[in-house]
Each structure stands twice: as C-alpha cells, then as structure tokens.
C-alpha cells in the first residue's frame, strides 16, 4: 500500500508542475489579450488575437479539473471543516468517511459523463484554434480519475498513519 501511495505522490508532483505551467499559460494568454485589445488600440494599432481567449479558457478548464484532483490528496478543497472537527470522534469520523465516499461516487459519475462528452467532442472543432473539442473535454474524466485516486490515497494514508481523518492530511506540498 505504501508503494501505491508513493507512486500517487510522485504523480502529484508531476501534476503540480503541469498545474504551474497551465497557470503560466493562462496568465500569458490573458495578458496578451489585454495588451492586444486595450494597450495597442490606444496607440492606433488594431489587431485581433482571438486565439488568446480560447487558449486561456481551455487551459483554465484543464487547470480546474487537474487542480481538484491534486487538492484532494492534500485536503485543500473547500469544505466545512469546522463542523466535522467540532463533532465528537465517534460522529465526526464516520461522517468524514461518508463525505469521502460521496466524493468518490460523484467523481465516478463525473468520469462517466466526461467520457460521454469526449465522445461528443470528437466531432466538434474549436472555432479559433481548430482543435477537436475532445482535447478540452478530456479534462473532466482525467480530473475525475485523479479525484478518485487521490481520495483513496488520502483515506489509505490516514489509516496507515493512524491519524484522525477529521483533521485532514498531515502532510502538504509545503512540508
């Protein structure tokens, strides 16, 4: 089990670099769009760069889905922590496991729906970049699979370390 956790953590380290790259790509694309749309037009240069908006949108979609999967491993997703942590252990622990199982179930539905979207996207092409939309739609099943993997890894890591699962992950990328 610890080998699988180590492999998951290595995958997440790679994922962190991908997320950083996507964030940089979104930032550059949005800055290019602002520069072209507002800065250059004020000096009389009227050019269009519609690809920047589409590129930023698609990179942001990937960043959201991959980031959700990554955030689950380190319990960095938005949640109502104070409610579960304030409950007595005998109520809080089963509630946390129930929530994690609901996350896995929802992610499985998201995975299935994402694969259906991928199939639909093969026949669609993005208007500006000219890529098939299945490349964009793959973000949903990939992110859902990462959510499932990292939820199981979080549960396993907590059980192996004998930590109170109500308190979330004991380790994080900053440690």
UniProtKB/TrEMBL annotation:
Alphabetic keyword roster: Cell inner membrane, Cell membrane, Membrane, Transmembrane, Transmembrane helix, Transport
One GO MF term: transmembrane transporter activity
Highest taxon of the lineage: Bacteria
Residue stretches spanning the membrane: 56-72, 93-115, 135-156
Pfam families: DctQ (PF04290)
Domain Tripartite ATP-independent periplasmic transporters DctQ component, chain residue ranges per copy: 28-157
Main localization category: membrane
Key word Cell inner membrane present: yes
InterPro entries per the UniProt record, alphabetical: DctQ, TRAP_DctQ
GO biological process: C4-dicarboxylate transport
Keyword Hydrolase: no
UniProt subunit comment: The complex comprises the extracytoplasmic solute receptor protein and the two transmembrane proteins.
PANTHER family with a match to the protein in the record: 2,3-DIKETO-L-GULONATE TRAP TRANSPORTER SMALL PERMEASE PROTEIN YIAM (PTHR35011)
UniProt record similarity statement: Belongs to the TRAP transporter small permease family.
Annotated function: Part of the tripartite ATP-independent periplasmic (TRAP) transport system.
Protein known as: TRAP transporter small permease protein
């Amino acid at each position: 089990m610890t080998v699988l956790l180590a492999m998951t953590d290595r995958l997440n380290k790679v994922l962190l670099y991908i997320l950083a790259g996507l964030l940089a790509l979104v930032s550059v694309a949005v800055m290019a769009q602002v520069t072209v749309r507002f800065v250059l037009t004020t000096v009389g240069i009227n050019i269009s760069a519609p690809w920047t908006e589409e590129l930023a949108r698609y990179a942001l979609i990937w960043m959201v889905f991959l980031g959700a999967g990554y955030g689950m491993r380190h319990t960095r997703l938005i949640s109502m922590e104070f409610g579960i942590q304030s409950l007595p252990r005998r109520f809080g622990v089963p509630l946390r496991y129930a929530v994690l199982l609901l996350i896995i179930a929802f992610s499985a539905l998201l995975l299935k729906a994402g694969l259906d979207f991928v199939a639909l996207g093969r026949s669609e092409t993005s208007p500006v970049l000219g890529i098939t939309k299945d490349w964009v739609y793959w973000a949903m099943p990939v992110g859902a699979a990462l959510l499932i993997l990292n939820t199981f890894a979080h549960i396993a890591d907590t059980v192996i370390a004998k930590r109170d699962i109500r308190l979330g992950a004991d380790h994080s990328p900053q440690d």
